[in-house]
């Protein structure tokens, strides 16, 4: 392949799969593949080498989205979310040494925010955020048109927001527990006596019927998500928040979040008068968010060199 026809490799490392895609400079995904995520560092390196070898002659650079606290400047992974074996792995160095190509690394939640900023629901928005609802609550914050990383690369680690003044802090009171979509589905499935505790499809079918067995639980879950959102809003004054994660594909979720948001504002004249309501929308990108957001970060790094 000639140099002017080369594209970019983007890799999205998840707890279950590693997705990898060939993407054009304009963000057009040529194709996507995935591999099962290994559970130890040596197997992970082997899979990564195999992926890189497949693309090296076709691409100009490599972008990576990864869970954990990511030092984007040095390209080091800390803790790695569910992939604890990635702790202190110098991922950028590993890829650059193997391919002799430029590489950038970004946290997965922040990658989702960058994807929305580049080509999605946050395009043209100066101050905005993404909340990803999954096992916990991840996300990214856009301030003055740019991703806010924070002093320690921990901005928008929403799972660690405290939602109680009780001491000692119980992990069931932090945002990552209260706003966990996975936990909500588990609880709803148990109330419905479903065999599969992760049968989100059936849970939402029943929610759309306003099933009285689980709808109060859904309202409580959405209320918790809105509390997290309002706490974030009170600090950084956002225009729009895009909701990500598989659950965000359900229109009833966005409908109920807006309902709970209005309910809180209406219940307090002070909040209602002082806090300008944030616009709540679903993310445009779902499975492709990490791939596209990591690539946008790569372009930012290359443009600044």
TrEMBL record:
InterPro entries hit by this protein: ATPase_NBD, ROK
Pfam families (UniProt xref): ROK
UniProt similarity note: Belongs to the ROK (NagC/XylR) family.
Name by which UniProt lists this protein: ROK family protein
Protein source organism: Vagococcus fluvialis
